[in-house]
Give the backbone structure.
Amino acid sequence: MTAPTPRAVSGAKVWLAVAWLIGYGVFFFSFTLPNDPGKRTRTDIWLDLPDYLWANIVTPAEMKSPSSWANLGQRLDLIAIAAVIWLGSWAVGHLILRAMHLPFTPRCAERCVLACGAGASIVSLLTLGCGLLGWMSPWPMGGVLAAAFVVELALRRRSFANRSHVHQNVGDLEKPISSPPRLSERGYGWLDAVNGVLFRGEQIPYDLMAKSLAVIATTLFLLAMLLGSLLPPTDFDVKAYHLTGPKEYFQSGRITFLEHNVYTNFPFLTEMLCLLGMMLRQDWFRGALAGQAVLMGFAPLTGLALFCAGRRWFGTNVGWLAAMIYLSTPWTYRLSIIAYVEGALSCYLFLVLLAVLLAIETRSTSLFVVAGLLAGSAMACKYPGLVSVVIPLFLASVFATWTRSEAADRARVVFKTVLAFSCGLAITIGPWLLKNLVETGNPVYPLAYGLFGGRDWDSTSHAKWRAGHSPNTYALSDLAEKFVDVTAKADWLSPLLIGLAVFAAARNSDLKSQVANLKSQSLVRWLWLYVGYLFLQWWLLTHRIDRFWVPLIPVVALLSGVGCTWSINKTWVRACSTFVGLSVLFNLGFITTPLCGFSAYLSDLDESRRGCEGTAAGIQYLNQLHDVGNLGQKPVVLCVGEAQVFDARMPVIYNTVFDQPIFRDWLAVRPAEVEKVPDRDWPLRPIDEIRRKFSEAGVTHVLVNWQELLRYRTTYGYSDFVNPARFVWLRKQGLFGDPARFEKGVASYESLDKANRDELDGWASELKRKQDGHAVYVSWQLFDVR
């Protein structure tokens, strides 16, 4: 099978394409970064780019915690644990694929990426099983990973000895289409001159030079991702549940229902890998950092999958370009250093797409099982995976099977496809749904409350959840605004994505739909259709947080690789090479700034940990008191409004914004007709009963985060029962001590917008103060329990 060679493109079209690159580049770099407190434009970043790049080589003198390669030793155990988990996942995945007898050669790249994805999902499920059984020691899972690795190596050694038999009856699956003719064979003048200067007159092929530069650039991005992933977390969601849930499971020695953290009832594929890091390291904090490094591994896995897809259906050059474009995208970096699920979800989305295309091409039922396994894994990362991955790619599988089958055999073949995909899907998402069904009576808890109900959930909670996770407008003006955000404005985009992807359709028209035996169907057109679907389902069905649309990036990266090679005209090649080179250089400098996350890559981990605790100032203060023994022998802290509790080094009791407020339920009596009585009017319990509840829970201190409560009240909503007057009453009753004994947080009242100032004035005006002539308010307080 050979790749069709792109036809020559007219000079006018080439110059229009170059004009597009220039125009889009100017448009892209003119935007002010939406999440930058300093409101800088990307052009401002360009001007400071030399300083940013130089700061990664020579540590600025003003840094309090200078970076040093000597600190790499603090991270070696974390890297080792992450490597053990990925090697074990690689082995488990390969053993699963061996059992399916897929049409792959033993060392096929496509086989490797699918095996790693499937293996990581199964390892996550095994960790879930161990957690439910209370097996939190390192030996059960460590033994499984080691045994799988040894068995897979033994099987590979045997297959290598008998490799002459392995290649029998293997189709074209391991034979990617060849690349277009080497660009170096056409004489590009200035590129040849560069070769001559760099290599002393020896003519190095352009492809080799380009790929070498791509490898160097990609290595730098991957190094930044790895070192960034090993730093302590700073993000709210990570500290509220992505790592806090696994921490609670590890400390309790078992996975149980956490009624105070509704987020922990989501499918937890990635969080189980973090829990596995804790189990193997036997330390919740360092194990969490190792888990973050494991999650970072989904980025290079996605890059390798892009290379496989690009090489197979569009040529080797496209594979290289697509992988580099994806790995150099700031969003990819950001999702690799923060323990979000979108990095893994993006990976599984593209792995399912790859598996479905391979299954359609080879008509392999086993590959549809693999596609189902991976689709279930996408949903196990996050419920939206049902809409973004499972449904569209399942329907694509059925449609393709139907159209490619003989009429007489169509029903049977389609039934086999549906059954195969569904079986794989059930294996990887089924256990998570079953766990929720057993614990809450609702397989998709906390969703679908009207259909299934749910433990510790009511219609008020459901309405609050829907209001907080649904679009607030469907105006066309908002659609246009979000379109600009996704295509050019969002902080962590790369100009290479849309800037080059628009040319994919042009290259496809030259190829006349001769892509890898997909007959009359245009693969590029289907990919664009999928991208459009992903954007629209994000806009129609979600609350439009920017990272929720990120899973479309790998698909766009593949289209960008295709678009980059739309013409062999030397003017285009020079312009495109310049555009790619400058964009990659910009992205490399940009990701190392604080605008993309915490980037003190080789700082002392202990100092970084103390600094990162400052994102939850009240928790940081508690840790300081705890470290010097000022919280007593057995401190237990009730947190009111504070959910970022991952860093807490003492036991804490807390609830998230969507859970029933513990403080309210301990102080008030729930009425029989709860929906008819606002909770601010619930009757108080007798003080002796309240005192007994605090005593039974062992609570010694209460931390209240007024700033977070204010934020909740103006966004998601929060119980009207919780207000400063309750704490005054408890002090008068002698249960709480004077908060003046401890430090308190203050924040600027003047910095609040009008909505927040009005809310604070009406709800908690007692918190307002004057400090150094400025209006402030108390942002958090600590009370002792007497």
About this structure: The chain has 34 helices and six strands.
